[in-house]
Write a structure and sequence with these properties.
Structural class of chain A: alpha/beta
Number of domains of chain B: 2
CATH class of the largest domain in chain B: Mainly Alpha
Order of helices and strands of chain A: EEEHEEHEHHHEHEHEEHEHEEHEH
Order of helices and strands of chain B: HHHEEHH
Helix content of chain B: 55-70%
Shape of chain A: elongated
Oligomer: heterodimer
Structural class of chain B: mainly alpha
Number of helices of chain B: 5
Distance between the termini of chain B: 36 Å
CATH topology of the largest domain in chain A: Rossmann fold
CATH architecture of the largest domain in chain B: Orthogonal Bundle
CATH superfamily of the largest domain in chain B: Winged helix-like DNA-binding domain superfamily/Winged helix DNA-binding domain
Strand content of chain B: 5-15%
Helix content of chain A: 25-40%
CATH class of the largest domain in chain A: Alpha Beta
Radius of gyration of chain A: 23 Å
CATH topology of the largest domain in chain B: Arc Repressor Mutant, subunit A
Largest sheet of chain B: 2 strands, antiparallel
Distance between the termini of chain A: 33 Å
Strand content of chain A: 25-35%
Strand order of the largest sheet of chain A: 6-7-8-3-9-10
Largest sheet of chain A: 6 strands, mixed
Number of strands of chain A: 14
Shape of chain B: globular
Number of strands of chain B: 2
Chain lengths: ~300, ~130
């Protein structure tokens, strides 16, 4: 197995209205991993725990091989870049340049040329006050800040929120360029399907404070299919026996629309049983997510 | 450099296989000359919208076949393909396509004679 950049081992956070965990995660070094999940599933809370902004009630967190459950030292912080999901209002009356100056003080590896280049690529002016910047402008500025010290690990909490399509494209390119070195890692949360498609190598699904699973992207997309299966004596009951079946729908006559998460096995099964696959469709990420959520719910009901 | 690789998302063929077949064809046909520097793994993954894991697998497979070589730190290059090998691959790709055609014909219950005459027609159409 690959080295891990982030490891969560049995993390639990108890809040009066929410319980996070127990979480187990192993984010591989050198790859882009995207965490996806519905609102309020605990993505941002997990990030805050990783950065030691909140304390977990139980469990262990390891970043770049260092245990951070007992606090985080500045040396480790220098190796990490973080983009918050929300900008802090207490910085509103600060100019971009002043905040950059502050970052420069803390990060030894701060690269002023890279910072300038990033601002230019993203079309941001840093002489404006942060509170005066538009939402998208401020996000872009914060992204430039998170990248400018060349961190080994980049934690991005919904990086694209507020960005226009052109800025979004620039961001994707910048992130790819950032990864080019090969030993860097991005862990990000997102709601944008296209972003996952373009960036991610691994996908982590989260829901209700739990990890539903982690998948290699291409493997995930190639195992989920909707198949239209047809056969003279095919019934809904028989169609439900298709390997990896996650939903059967009647599609007229003796044709059934079956969703599977084991496409290869399902096709073999059809061939062996003598059923015909009339057509096949890939599932989009949101469809996979809702199928996983449903499975998760059914599973719980059984208990 | 952008490689002319097209992905069919709806195809049942695995992604890595689609990329591998097309990249192999580009090399064997000589469209990518010996010594050409290929895009980095991350770059190719970005253009075909797949994960780097898939591209790594393709590069590894083709390297094992001797079509690519990787120089540490500089990247992946197209290796020398000798004439004999080139022929083998060239005909291999055609053979595979013919196989697919025969399978498609069998699926709609074509007879051998029908298939032969169709093949002749196709040859005529493209060669004359």
């Amino acid at each position: 197995m690959n080295e891990s950049a982030v490891r969560l081992d049995g993390i639990v956070l108890n809040r009066s209205n929410f319980k996070l965990g127990p979480l187990y995660m192993d984010i591989p070094l050198g790859y882009i991993t995207a965490i996806v999940g519905p609102n309020g599933c605990g993505k941002s809370s997990t990030f805050r725990l990783m950065l030691d902004l909140d304390k977990a009630d139980q469990g262990m967190i390891e970043l770049l091989g260092c245990n951070v459950s007992q606090g985080m030292d500045t040396e480790l912080k220098k190796r990490i870049g973080y983009l918050h999901d929300q900008s802090s209002s207490h910085e509103n009356s600060m100019t971009g340049a002043a905040k950059a100056e502050f970052h420069r003080f803390w990060y030894d590896e701060w690269d002023i040329n890279l910072y300038r280049e990033l601002l230019q690529a993203l079309e941001v002016e840093d002489h404006l006050m942060l509170g005066k910047m538009s939402k998208g402008m401020r996000r872009k500025f914060e992204l430039a800040l998170a990248l400018a010290h060349g961190p080994e690990l980049l934690l991005l909490d919904e990086p694209s929120s507020g960005l226009d399509p052109l800025a979004w494209k620039t961001m994707i390119e910048l992130l790819h360029r950032y990864m080019e070195q090969g030993d860097r890692t991005i862990l990000m949360t997102t709601h944008i399907i296209e972003e996952v498609k373009r960036l991610a190598d691994y996908i982590v699904f989260m829901a209700q404070g739990k990890v539903l699973g982690m998948y290699e992207k291409d493997e995930l997309f190639s195992s989920w299919y909707t198949l239209f299966v047809s056969g003279a004596d095919l019934t809904a009951k028989l169609a439900a026996e298709l390997p990896g079946q996650c939903g059967v729908e009647h599609a007229g006559a003796t044709t059934f629309r079956v969703t599977t998460n084991q496409a290869a096995e399902a096709e073999e099964w059809c061939a062996a049983e003598g059923y015909q696959i009339v057509s096949r469709q890939v599932l989009e990420l949101d469809e996979i997510m809702s199928a996983l959520l449903q499975q998760n719910r059914l599973h719980k009901r059984k208990i | 450099m952008r490689l002319p690789i097209q992905i069919n998302e709806q195809s049942a063929e695995p992604l890595y296989h689609q990329i591998e077949v097309q990249l192999r064809a580009l090399i064997v046909s000589g469209q990518l000359a010996e010594g050409t520097l290929l895009p980095s793994i991350r770059e190719l993954a970005q253009t075909v919208k797949c994960s780097v894991i898939t591209v790594k697998r393709v590069y590894n497979d083709l390297e094992a076949e001797g079509l690519l070589r990787t120089r540490q730190g500089t990247g992946t290059y197209v290796a020398e393909v000798c004439e004999k090998e080139r022929d083998r691959y060239r005909l291999g790709a055609v053979m595979e396509a013919l196989d697919q055609a025969v399978i498609a014909a069998k699926r709609v219950k074509c007879t051998e004679e029908e298939l032969e005459s169709m093949l002749k027609e196709a040859i005529k159409k493209h060669f004359d």
